[in-house]
Design goal:
The protein has helices at 48-55, 95-99, 101-105, 110-123, 139-153, 169-185, 197-203, 237-256; strands spanning 4-16, 21-33, 37-41, 63-68, 71-72, 80-83, 157-161, 189-193, 206-210, 217-222. By secondary structure, the chain is an alpha/beta fold. The protein has a domain at 1-75 and 189-268: P-loop containing nucleotide triphosphate hydrolases (Rossmann fold, 3-Layer(aba) Sandwich), CATH 3.40.50.300. Strands 6-7-8-3-9-10 form a six-stranded mixed beta sheet, with helices on both faces. It has a four-stranded antiparallel beta sheet with strand order 2-1-4-5, covered by helices on one side. β1 (4-16) and β2 (21-33) form a beta hairpin. α4 packs across α5 (139-153). The structure holds adenosine-5'-triphosphate (ATP) and magnesium ion. Magnesium ion (MG) is lined by residues 48-49, 85, 161.
Length: 268
């Protein structure tokens, strides 16, 4: 279809180590259209990172394919901006040099790119840390540098792997609301991974639940909560209905995953 941005067809990914073969994904199908904000939830180890890394071109499918705008992904695509679960910063570069790296690659002049980088550093609350190195930052601060770098690059497609997981509740809320604003004001297509059903319902136009490993997509749920959204969306009468619907789907898969039998309703 013309407005399809990401198309995953029968994607299987098997990791082979010396000891064993791990089937991380089996026959995954997913279609994401222009301007959709799809949030993927699923138990730890079910293959979410493997899926997003394969879409981003960092992993190769064992079988099946990933298409971006109808063309097979053969490597890292400049239209995609990624925030990794594990930060992936340049350890030898300062915060501001990490954030403006992509802008420099695009050929933007020093003054202009410094101003833009500073704008995003301020947005993620890291003013004063411009000249710090990643080793001097906490996990949540590194994650914010990674987010600022991706936002500064202004990619058409954003692939975000638990970008807010390491943040304190207040910073998380500020950045969730910034992401809602950026999404509402732009033409971006977003795939976002989280363990929080509340975060999924706050941000998404569609929630997708993965089964336990080997991961497949178990359910798509159109999120019809009204926009613009903020934390008060939880007060909407439809919110609890949607939350129960997602949770009942997730619960079965969580139960299959060892050690998560007592998981509370916001975590999956
Ligand atoms: N490079 C690799 N080599 C071998 N096995 C791997 C590799 N990467 C992932 N796996 C395995 O694939 C499965 C899926 O891992 P993945 O990181 O995609 O899960 P996840 O859903 O992102 O988990 P989490 O919620 O904890 O981040 C796991 O069993 C993991 O051990
Ligand atoms: Mg992961």
């Amino acid at each position: 279809m013309a407005n399809t941005v990401i198309q995953v067809n029968d994607l299987t990914k098997i990791f082979e180590t010396k000891k064993e073969k791990v089937t991380a994904l089996q026959d995954v199908n997913l279609t994401i259209k222009n301007r959709e904000f799809v949030v993927l939830v699923g138990a730890s180890g079910c293959g979410k990172t493997t899926l997003i890394n394969t879409i981003a071109g960092f992993e190769k499918p064992t079988s099946g394919e990933v298409l971006l705008h109808g063309e097979p992904v053969t490597g890292i695509d400049p239209r995609c901006g990624m925030v990794f679960q594990q930060y992936a910063l340049f350890d030898w570069k300062t915060v501001i040099n990490n954030v403006d790296f992509g802008l420099k690659m695009k050929g933007m002049k020093l003054k202009e790119r410094r101003e833009l980088a500073q704008q995003y550093i301020d947005m993620v609350g890291l003013q004063g840390f411009e000249n710090a190195y990643p080793s001097q930052l906490s996990g949540g601060m590194k994650q914010r540098v990674s987010l600022a770098r991706t936002l500064a690059n202004n990619p058409e497609i954003m692939l975000l792997d638990e970008p807010f997981a390491a943040l304190d509740a207040m910073t998380r809320q500020v950045l969730q609301e910034e992401l809602i604003r950026i999404y509402s004001e732009s033409q971006k297509t977003i795939l976002f991974i989280t363990h929080s059903i509340d975060e999924a319902l706050l941000l998404s136009t569609r929630v997708s639940v993965m089964t336990s490993r080997p991961g497949k997509i178990k359910q798509f749920l159109e999120n019809d909560l009204p926009w613009p959204r903020d934390a008060d969306v939880q007060l909407h009468p439809r919110y609890q209905e949607l939350k129960s619907e997602v949770w009942s789907t997730v619960q079965e898969e969580v139960m299959k995953t060892a050690g998560l039998l007592g998981a509370d309703k916001d975590k999956c």
